[in-house]
Design goal:
148 residues; alpha/beta; Lysozyme-like; 21% helix; globular; disordered C terminus
Length: 148
């Protein structure tokens, strides 16, 4: 796995798991699929947020992700469980996670948080407006301005 410096992380990319199946409300089956079906070394995301608002850890932050081609080396991948059904607690957890990451990652700027669909025209992910997260963010005046 390719390592990186924390100061090289400048963006966060928000994804969804693209399934509302109850047994997929955990990072473990996604990790299994990414390793066994895709041949990757680990799950592609750095964080996964369950329907209960629990934040689960994926790849270590200092390891390049596998979640957004051409943007992996400078980004953090955050995946919310679901395809079209999301819970407010997930948006709250994502806001807290992003606010916390901004404290520890000096290069991560509020305006550099993107829905995956903005970086890949073939995706609709995460299938919700990032304003659903920014409503709970400490920095909502600055964040998520690019989600139009």
């Amino acid at each position: 796995m390719q390592k990186r410096k924390l100061e090289d992380i400048t963006m966060a990319i928000i994804h969804c798991s693209a399934t509302d199946l109850p047994y997929m409300d955990d990072i473990c089956p996604i990790r299994y699929g990414h390793i066994h079906d895709n041949g990757w070394e680990d799950v592609g995301y750095h964080f996964f947020i369950t329907k209960r608002g629990t934040v689960q850890f994926g790849r270590k932050i200092d390891v390049v992700g596998a979640h957004a081609r051409s943007f992996n080396s400078e980004s953090i991948g955050i995946c919310l469980s679901g395809e079209f059904e999301f819970k407010e607690i997930q948006f709250m957890a994502a806001a807290v996670l992003l606010d916390t990451l901004r404290e520890y990652l000096p290069g991560l700027k509020p305006r550099w948080i993107f829905p995956h669909r903005h970086l890949n025209v073939y995706k609709t992910c995460p299938n919700f407006s990032l304003s659903r997260i920014s409503n709970f963010s400490k920095q909502k005046a600055e964040a998520f301005l690019l989600d139009v």
